[in-house]
Amino acid sequence: MSNFVGLRLPVMSCHCASTPHPRTVNVVGSSSCSLLNKTFKNAPRRMLLGFGASSFLSHFITNMSASGFKSFIASAKITAGPSVDQILKNVEWPEQFPFKEEDFQRYDESSDSTFYESPRFVTHIDDPAIAALTKYYSKVFPPSNTPGVSILDMCSSWVSHFPPGYKQERVVGLGLNEEELKRNPVLTEYTVQDLNVNPKLSFEDNSFDVITNVVSVDYLTKPLDIFKEMNRILKPGGLAIMSFSNRCFFTKAISIWTSTGDADHVMIVGSYFHYAGGFEPPQAVDIFPNPGRSDPMYIVYSRKLATA
């Protein structure tokens, strides 16, 4: 097997919808792919992933092929082999973080604050996927109105998809658009911050019981810095939940994300938890509501170690 993972632009464009419309849609058909190909053909984009990233993924492809995992690269769906829930079980992680700086480059390196300057009062996953995420939250969140519980909704917007009527004394939203954050009914406070410029979180150590991030982990260009900060501000045993689908603003998603598929994304997010340190082994959950009829929805989560 080659040590390089080829970037298949038209195909991956279909996986991560690149339409500029704020509610991204899955792009289907050759004409759509041709349009995307024309759009990005002159972009300053490397056509192969860095050696570090590709050898990392190849390591797991080799190990998993024996158990029937047919395609670990650029798969739009998990259709064979281990389930998503099993991908992060008993992983033998490389000693060093396997990704390079170039793996976090993007087509559009302009200011994210400018990109999100105008509010987008839309949802970025469809209703069945939202319902699946809300149902998951209802199972793992502390009960509503639990004394002393604090939640941080990272990369927040005008909606957090929490269970209806869910409240805590402190629910903080951290996002890029103030107008959206002001409209979010579950937030008790908010902070406007571009994490790709400043990954340092302005919260005290051991402040939060839960951190959520909905369909935005694919935009983080300094993930290890951010995940280390997440660990710092979580209370011992605190829960961090990263949810993602196969939709994104393609030009703003990082290279390693747009160059790979859903199974790889699980591994990538799992690696952030692992290499940040201080977390329990990450786990994955497939909450895909209606295969073929709605957006897929995946969770990678972990808890801060109870003791150092």
UniProtKB/TrEMBL annotation:
<feature type="domain" description="Methyltransferase type 11">
    <location>
        <begin position="170"/>
        <end position="241"/>
    </location>
</feature>
<dbReference type="InterPro" id="IPR029063">
    <property type="entry name" value="SAM-dependent_MTases_sf"/>
</dbReference>
<dbReference type="Pfam" id="PF08241">
    <property type="entry name" value="Methyltransf_11"/>
</dbReference>
<protein>
    <recommendedName>
        <fullName>Methyltransferase type 11 domain-containing protein</fullName>
    </recommendedName>
</protein>
<dbReference type="GO" id="GO:0008757">
    <property type="term" value="F:S-adenosylmethionine-dependent methyltransferase activity"/>
</dbReference>
<dbReference type="InterPro" id="IPR013216">
    <property type="entry name" value="Methyltransf_11"/>
</dbReference>
